[in-house]
Amino acid sequence: MENNAKKGVSRRRFLGTTAAGMAGLAVLPGLSSCKEKPAATDKVIRMGFIGMGRQSMFLLNGFLQIPGTQVVAGCDVYGRKRKRFEQRVTDFYAKAGQKAEVNTYEKYEDLLGRDDIDAVVIAVPDHAHAMIAVAACKAGKDVYLEKPMTFTIKEGQVLCQAVRDNNRILGIGSQQRSDPNFQHAVELVQSGKLGKIEKINAYVGAPPTPYNLPEQPVPDDLNWDRWLGPLPGDIHFNNELDPPISLNPPQDEQFWGAWRWYKEMGGGFTTDWGAHMFDIAQWGLGMDGSGPIEISPIGDGTEYMTFKYANGTVMTSEPFDEKLTKGVKFWGETGWIEVARGYFNASDEKFMPAETAKDDGPYETKIPHQVNFIEAVRERKDPVVPVEIGHSSATVCNLGNIACDLQRTIKWDPDTETFVDDEDGAATAKLSYEYRAPWKLI
User: Fold this and answer.
1) Residue 208: which of 265, 154, 152, 257 has the closest Cα?
2) In the chain, is it the N or the C terminus that has fewer CB atoms within a 10 Å radius of its CB?
3) What is the pTM of this model?
4) Domains of the chain in sequence order
5) What digits encode the pLDDT tens for the residues 316-368?
6) CA 54 to mean position of chain CA atoms
7) 235 Cβ partners below 8 Å, 6+ apart?
8) pLDDT tens per residue, range 397-440
9) What sections of 209-296 are H helices per DSSP?
């Protein structure tokens, strides 16, 4: 089978929008075709946005177009981004011939305090995901939360409890689960068409590095203390952490917020892309809600971050092509398949998706990811990626970073979510961190 790895019987690339192809944006072209209006008796879902950066703008574009939703509020610690949000929402409704009022806030607590908001979209840096999402659940709001679900494993445990205790709907922005190529790949694996899965290449990229950007002056309209939230207060500002924009002339962020690449604030590629590709691998293996039992870092007897599962399957963050495509390759007894954004390849033509899948595009499905969340809110049922799946996928990512941080192999019990043979307690200590006062998780 190794010899077959160098060539596929056929290859099809399904090209999406330029933005989606660049960096995993939640651009859902299918939303523009959702023209069916809700029944007169259906309650309009009134929405608030917390975090108004680059990813939030793509999510806003999608949710604005879903019938039966109304965006009424937004929140960000950066003043100019609040103004951009207000302008875009107001312009959208004006062009649609609708009169709408939108309010913006610096403090998320003020937005959550509004009784007229049903659901919130949280697209802030990872370190604030859990804190704000838990507060939203307690305020009676349903939540669409960007991936990775949480910054630490302990935060994920607390958020799962908060969602269920407060009877909330929480969906995760792991939109690949609404992509026909990834759905087809998982169906092949779970139906046994590839035979027993022996190994998986789930390439995501490198772990985070220590923060090393030079200090720069904090913009006058940015509340840096609130941006940091529970993180240590001695982390200094740099424009790359919260990329600037201009309102006149209009110019959006030219790059992604760099906080994600530094261990003090994010999880590097391990969480940024692992929340997508490790997520698909877990789904295919039937490991949603579970996880690996042994995790080895780069350099501990392996060239790549390695995850071993109880059934014997080994997953590595190892490229499957020379282009270093971020994607997943499932190696089975009877063949292999490769799946990535806008791409599918297989060892045999019989494993390829139907020709009609090409017309759907990489992020468009019959029921797009964001539409699925709104339907879940209406029907009071779990969306395609509920909180427990978001937690188990984020946990795999965090375990990889913990192993790399400790520079040794660690053992994990996915049932109890505890480390095994952690005699010095070093791994257990990395399940959480102490929040800076006065910030609290619960």
Assistant:
1) 265
2) C
3) 0.90
4) 45-175 (3.40.50.720), 176-208+266-430 (3.30.360.10)
5) 999 999 999 999 999 999 999 999 999 999 999 999 998 544 434 434 334 58
6) 14
7) 211, 228, 264, 265
8) 999 999 999 999 999 999 999 999 999 999 999 999 999 999 99
9) 224-228, 268-272, 274-285
